[in-house]
Amino acid sequence: MGIEFIFSELQLRRLEDRGIEPLVMAKRMLDGYTRTLLIEIPGTPKSEANVFKQKALQITDSLGLKLEKTCGSLAQLNKTLDQALSSG
Question: What beta strand segments (E) does 1-88 contain?
């Protein structure tokens, strides 16, 4: 993950060929966002958790967003996703 993931998901890499800076376009596309969320999973090896934290900080710094953290698990994420899908 990281800022490269953001560029990939927003399909911004192709814009470089046209002389458009991907970071400028990402900031424009995510203009209404104010924060990012880092979900820390208990039991994750510290070295791996540090890598994810550094990537989250890179994204927040690059896009000018606030980083928030919470503790979670795959079970919690699946439950929340199921609730969101069933309510819509």
Answer: 35-40, 66-71
